[in-house]
Amino acid sequence: LQHILDFIDNLKRVNIENIPPTSHLMAFGNVLREDAPGKSLPTDKALENAPCREGNFFVVPKVIE
Description:
The protein has helices at residues 2-12, 43-47; strands at residues 53-54, 57-58. By secondary structure, the protein is of the alpha+beta class.
């Protein structure tokens, strides 16, 4: 435990005054793909393994009271 507390004390001594709070060592960016329509799964194929269905719809437990 003392080793961890010593490490935290070392971190407290680091000067971060000129570093923005959202700074990161790696250059990250949004990795997005183009939002383009694609081929859909047929309804019967999508529902074939559904534990519970009603007509062409999945039946799921109510999540909002």
